[in-house]
Amino acid sequence: MTQTAIVTGSGGLIGSESVIHFVEQGWNVVGVDNDMRARFFGPEASTARMTGWLSQRYRAEFVSEDVDIRDAGAIDRIFGREAARIGLVVHAAAQPSHDWAASDPQTDFGVNANGTLNLLEAARRHCPDAPFIFCSTNKVYGDTPNRLPLVELEERLELPEDHLWHGGIDTTMSIDASTHSLFGVSKAAADLLVQEYGRYFHMPTMCMRGGCLTGPNHAGTRLHGFLSYLMRCTITGRPYTVYGYGGRQVRDNIHAADLVRAFEAFAAAPRVSAVYNLGGGRAANCSVLEAIALCEEIAGRPLEWTLSDEARIGDHRWWISDVSDFERDYPGWTVEHSIATTLREIHEANAEHWSAAR
Fold first, then answer.
1. Residues 56-105: pLDDT tens digits?
2. DSSP for residue 279
3. Cα(26)–Cα(285) distance, rounded to whole angstroms?
């Protein structure tokens, strides 16, 4: 019997990459996506185009369900229908912006926390032995990283080389006594639920606390999708605003394909209540200033950008993930995409479409 993967947020960046990857590996996939991204960020962020493309390309292997993960009954019916075949759950659906969360906290918490609870309950009832992978976030640590003793260099902030976390921040960082943003709180609640279902019910669960997730399928917008939106602005001539820290704030960025390979590794050898910081690490990170320079070089045109002195609440000045725990547990996995490689892929995949829109 061919196994089925349930993928939430299947039209989004990580969801669509998961659909493609697991179908190509011989799985059937049931996608759950009601295009709330268009509600969050407007029509240009819609996942409908990607969902349509997946449905056309994988007619026999992929089924798309237009269901809101806050609808516990609908979620339970999907899991019940597929129960005998479910071999994996990838939960990538979310309200992903801490700026947007402040505009509608109830929707944010409903999607991120209550939606996750609905999925965990459905999995516990119908497929408790199937690995459950949750796309968490480094925002569960709140603004604790901003207390790090950073040094200001010409184009980036950086930790001293002798600091414990110079190679990347690990999961020993506390999530307490910090400002998270409301998005960070809703994701932290979901993160803890996933851990607790793993421990309490002995289910194979993983919280993947990502930094910036990226790739050519990302429908980047002003409030979410840093590298994609930055390249989009460079191509289209749309003005870009850098918020705070002189543009020297640092992010690691992990390509969706690298992330989904990590999902596959965990699915093949799952653990109970696993938690990993999983981003680009030292192999793929950049400041905003460095990313702007790369976008301009790849696109062959300047970006019109301005600097705002007002940083976003709870935003990180510096984040690089320590991925060594995952590499230790899954030694066949490593980050393969650099920032430059990823930006070139984003440009090649979208330049024609974005230029036409301009």
1. 999 999 999 999 999 999 999 999 999 999 999 999 999 988 889 999 99
2. S
3. 33
pLDDT tens digit sequence for 134-144: 999 999 999 99
At 90, list the tokens.
């990838």
* Spatial separation of the C-alpha atoms in residues 221 and 202, rounded to whole Å: 38
Range list of H helices, 269-338 = 288-299, 324-329
Q: Are strands 132-137 and 250-255 parallel, antiparallel or unpaired?
A: unpaired
Residue 203 near residue 124, CB atoms below 8 Å = yes
Q: What are φ and ψ of residue 62, in 5° steps? A: -125, 130
Phi/psi class of residue 254: alpha, beta or left (left: φ > 0; alpha: ψ in -120 to 50)? beta
Dihedral (Cα; 308, 169, 144, 108), 10-degree rounding? 70
Mean pLDDT, rounded, for 45-61 = 95
Q: For residues 45 and 60, give the distance between their C-alpha atoms in angstroms, rounded to a whole number.
A: 27
- Give the span between the Cα atoms of 247 and 250, in whole angstroms: 9
Instruction: Supply the pTM of this predicted model.
Output: 0.94
Residue ranges of E strands in 81-204: 86-91, 132-137, 151-152, 157-158
- Taken in order 75, 219, 223, 292, the sign of the CA dihedral is positive
Contacts of 232 (CB under 8 A, 6+ apart): 220, 238, 350, 354
As given in the structure block, the two tokens for residue 338 are 């650099």
Single-letter amino acid, residue 186: S
Q: What is the CA radius of gyration of the chain?
A: 19
Amino acid at residue number 96:
P
Query: Sheet containing 205-210: which strands, arranged edge to edge?
Result: 62-65, 28-32, 4-8, 86-91, 132-137, 205-210, 274-277
